[in-house]
């Protein structure tokens, strides 16, 4: 093996080691923040009064990496969901009689980072 072939291999090895050391330091200092956050959501159903409710939805930061060996994309997604009943005040179209309607919605209870 000549010095001409050793030098490019040494540079590639140095770059790979350096990128993994940097990634370990970066991931050690920064945390993935993927969790349920409360958002105001407008519930709109025809014939009913619009109501704003507070629901949990997954949001946050997940690590994405693009390296020489490939790329790894992660997204914040729900692990556990629950059903929520939102009571709405409505009126019948023909008789205009008022009634209550329980509108079913979904909220996120637990979140985690998964492959996109």
Automatic annotation (TrEMBL):
UniProt keyword annotation of Hydrolase present: no
InterPro entries for this protein: Cys_knot_C (IPR006207), Cystine-knot_cytokine (IPR029034), DAN_dom (IPR004133)
Any Gene Ontology CC annotation: extracellular region
Signal peptide feature range: 1-23
Domain (CTCK): residue spans on this chain: 34-116
Coiled coil region boundaries: none
Keywords: Disulfide bond, Secreted, Signal
Top-rank taxon, per record: Eukaryota
Pfam families, per the entry: DAN
Keyword match Acetylation: no
Record localization: Secreted
UniProt protein name: CTCK domain-containing protein
Organism lineage string: Eukaryota, Metazoa, Cnidaria, Anthozoa, Hexacorallia
